[in-house]
Write a structure and sequence with these properties.
Blueprint (H helix, E strand, L loop, with lengths): L3 E6 L4 H16 L4 E6 L4 H6 L7 E2 L1
Parallel strand pairs: 1-2
Antiparallel strand pairs: 1-3
Length: about 60
C-alpha cells in the first residue's frame, strides 16, 4: 500500500504556515510516503479536482 498526501495551501494562509514544520517532520519520519504541496492560488485546477473549499486541507 502506498501513501500519498497532498497539502493544499495558500501563501497568505496563517494556519498553513503554522502547520508547515509539522508536515515537514512527518515527511521526514515517513520517507516511503509521497508528500506534495499544492498552492491553491497557482493550481486551481487540482484544487477544484479535490474540491478544496478551505485552507489548509490535506487529501
Amino acid at each position: 500500500m502506498s501513501v500519498n498526501l497532498k497539502d493544499f495551501y495558500a501563501d497568505w494562509c496563517g494556519p498553513c504556515k503554522t502547520q508547515d514544520p509539522i508536515l515537514e517532520e512527518i515527511s521526514e519520519a515517513y520517507p516511503e510516503a509521497a508528500f506534495e504541496k499544492v498552492n491553491v492560488d497557482e493550481d486551481q485546477e487540482t484544487a477544484n479536482e479535490y474540491q478544496v473549499r478551505s485552507r489548509p486541507r490535506r487529501s
